[in-house]
Write a structure and sequence with these properties.
Layout lengths: L1 H28 L6 H8 L3 H7 L3 H23 L8 H18 L1 H11 L9 H27 L8 H19 L2 H7 L3 H17 L15
């Protein structure tokens, strides 16, 4: 039994070595230009060894995406569930801040999530990995949805579709990040990322609160 456990531990260490190497290679070269050969060189293993653990380069990316989502989820939980006395709108602000911090402290993880979302990467992984990523992504969005639903239950926000509202916030924040990632757009807007990011959050909260008293209606796609 001890020998079997040792083999399993060695196998998991080797897998983690490959993932760490791939994270560096993807960050330096980008997913599209990165090669399995370069990952193998950095991990100090033969190229064939990589395929004992991962069928494709996309499968490596998928497992790194799962790591990134786990890290993001932990940070969102710390910002929300870890601070239960926060007012719902302050909890949403805290989670938005946690997301921004995640993109700045682990930019390689954020770029991996972006790389996975684009192109045909998802089509080239197993159904099992795809389901795991979908479930992890849903768990992350559910944290925001729950905060919105709590605000609705307390009468802070009008009753409506909490999941739809959380999705709109996610889209708005990712749009802000993508917009200011481009140097020409940064010059056009002439504003700081943090200022625009927080303005986006506040505008979303203002729209969610519906100051005119009308309940939030996702069918009309009106948050403001």
């Amino acid at each position: 039994m001890a020998t079997r456990e040792r083999r399993e531990q060695d196998r998991e260490r080797r897998r983690q070595d490959i993932l760490r190497a791939a994270r560096v290679v993807f960050a330096q070269a980008g997913f599209r230009r990165a090669t399995v050969e370069e990952i193998a060189r950095r991990a100090e293993v033969a190229k064939g060894t990589i395929y004992l653990y991962f069928d494709t380069k996309e499968a490596i990316l998928a497992d790194l995406v799962l790591e990134a989502l786990a890290e993001l989820q932990a940070q969102l939980i710390a910002a929300s569930d870890g601070r239960p006395l926060l007012h719902p709108d302050d909890k949403l602000r805290a989670m938005a801040d946690a997301y921004l911090a995640f993109t700045e402290r682990a930019p390689d993880y954020y770029r991996l999530l972006t790389a996975f979302d684009g192109g045909q990467v998802a089509a080239n992984i197993s159904a099992e990995r795809g389901e795991l990523i979908l479930a992890a992504s849903n768990r992350t969005l559910d944290l925001v949805t729950q905060a919105v639903a709590d605000g609705m239950a307390l009468g802070i926000f009008p009753m409506g579709n909490a999941h739809h509202a959380a999705t709109v916030l996610w889209a708005a924040l990712n749009g802000t990040l993508a917009l200011l990632a481009h140097p020409i757009r940064r010059a056009m807007i002439a504003t700081d990322l943090h200022d625009l990011y927080h303005a986006t959050v506040e505008l979303w909260l203002k729209g969610l609160s519906c100051p005119d008293g009308a309940p939030y209606n996702p069918a009309k796609e009106k948050l403001l």
